[in-house]
User: Fold these one by one.
Assistant:
Number 1:
Amino acid sequence: MAIKTILLVAFFASMIIVGASCRKHSVDVNGFVLGGRSVGPWLTAFAFGTSYFSAVIFVGYAGQFGWNFGIASTWIGLGNAFIGSLLPWVVLGRRTRVMTQHIGSKTMPDFFGNRYKSTKLRVAASAITFVFLVPYTASLFNGLSRLFEMAFDIDYAYCVIAMAVLTGIYVIVGGYMATAINDFIQGVIMLFGIVAVIAAVLNQNGGFMESMKALANIESDVMNGAYASFLGPDPFYLLVVVLLTSLGTWGLPQMVGKFYSIKSENSIQKGTIISTAFAIIVAGGCYFLGGFGRLFATPDQVATEGFDSIVPSMLSNLPDVLIAIVLVLVLSASMSTLSSLVLTSSSTLTLDLIAPVSKKEMTDKKKITIMRVFIAFFIIVSAVIAIVQAKSKVTFIAQLMGVSWGALAGAFLAPFLYGLYWK
């Protein structure tokens, strides 16, 4: 318990220190929302990756798709790396950086409004962002509940409140630059953490080869050894999942927004390589780990407790030091995505809805104050939704979370691509 507590306190303290040190970068709107468009390739690449991969992937998707596809679920992680990370940087990165600076847009709705000369489009895009980012934000808390209860035996609500408060502090104080630097720190933790966890989990079954043998012996309705095969028991469904989890990033405001802030076109090339490598290790590692879920959970357990119980079952017998690392890993994944989402929501609502309809010209100081208020508001609302859902099992909230990703990407991907490439 002492090891877990020390690591968590050190992690939280570093986040607050970074937020305080970045206060000087958030004196105007450009600095608070975009870091002054001076963020380097390493920070931008890690910010992109950590916004993409949250606790939902580590606990939920890795367990669910690992259970369904076995070791072939690794293809989902690789698809996320090449289709969801590499291609957006290549196709969208440079043109987004150049065009958003040229037309002076700071958010995706602002881009639509300026590019298509349409106030209605700006307002509609802002409303869609607000409506669907809040439930998406709430879903980030879900992956934490089982892991914290397993490690500390404390109520889920306290975990949610602590994470919400600490994330709110460093985002409100330091703005985008604090988020980017903390994303880098959290990304490094995720890289080392996933490698250590994979090695420890496989070692419980005698290493990689022994784990593969055990996985091959598990019965499947399709064929013998399906869960240890190259494409798994259902290749077509696997392909669908790869595309659905990869293409969405192209149209998500909090992901595309990272290209607005990068400092130069030359940084795009470096960022492309860094972001892809990060995604291969983190996403590939998560789904690879989840592929061995059938060695640690039973069909009866999954039927009664759900797919979210698989990864905690894999981790329950690890040494305390590794469990502490896993907790910090999952916290890193959740807080990095949470900070990106609430900053995107608050900036969009302030700059694209409130400022345009204001009768008086708003100063930068007032805009930043309003954004800080909305950051706190969004974090509180998402935390309340997460706690209510966990306590009362309100199903429609879970369904709304499920469509958030698709609704945002479906609404924005086409007009954004047209805006970049259509003369």
Number 2:
Amino acid sequence: MALTKRQKEVLDFIAAFVDDNGYCPSYEEIARGLNLASLATVHKHITVLEAKSYLKRGFNQSRSLELAPRYIQEQRRPKAASGEIPLLGRIAAGAPVEAVAQAETLNFADFVGSGETFALEVRGNSMIDDHICDGDKILLEKVGQARDGDIVVALVAGNETTLKRFYREPGDMVRLQPANSTLKPIVVPARDVQIQGRLLAVLRKYR
């Protein structure tokens, strides 16, 4: 269950207070720190956060709050890109066209899948024909399965990870296909392949 903006503020305030003081804030301190109108409002937020498994508390004790493992795990999880930058229009990569300014924004949350997202740096040129080059950063969605043609991070035989296109082959085999005509595909039993992520986006910095 997602948190509202105010619920996230309450949770972050409690975490920061514990870091600074070594104990949990009282409901009065939460109300003052976040300019909340009443202790009843604080109690309502605490109850919801407890129901969502972000907080634990003792019965009827205002200083018995404790951050639950879920909050700690989510704080440690790699954060997906969520900033916005102006999208000013389209640029021709073929014949020149008239530039037309547009008032839009590009939100990097659009590149994030529904599951956990993480990034890796590419080493090597096995996917160069798919325009994925050495040194590129790739954004991936953590998944355990893939469709034919997906570009995936696969763990092969439990000891080697690789970025390739995924295909199922007859005889319960899997083909991990490079996008480089000088390289041969990796063909292994399906039981030896563990899908760890599916490609969402490629990021390249030119300077």
Number 3:
Amino acid sequence: MAMEYKDMEVRVSGVRLSPTKTRVSCGGFDLLIDKLGGDAPSPLDLALASLVGCINITATLVAKEMAIEVSEASFEAMGIFNPAVLYGKEGPRAGYKEVKVIMRLKTDADEEKLREFIRRVEERCPVSDNLSNTTPLRLVVERA
């Protein structure tokens, strides 16, 4: 019998500490977020960090299902970003133009199995899916 999964809500909250700094609470942890080049990771840094973390978790699940041994794994994510739109100027878009992730794996998988492994990881990673596809977003303002 197949297990049935239900929708889950993931919730974070944030408080403005300064014009560039935000303290965010998520999953029982507090994070400090700052601008690019500030005193803490930027939202753009954290988007890539989330992607790397999610790929690691997803790759672990997929490797187990495919009986692939991964004895070592490291990841590097790079994004191309143009700040023009952020600063109110003409530009292609506000977000990353491209994101590249390099997975360095020590594994017993042959090339064919590794290609299928990567396909499944890309397909199943929730953060990768959110970066690759449009997700409806509603910004709601409430008076404090």
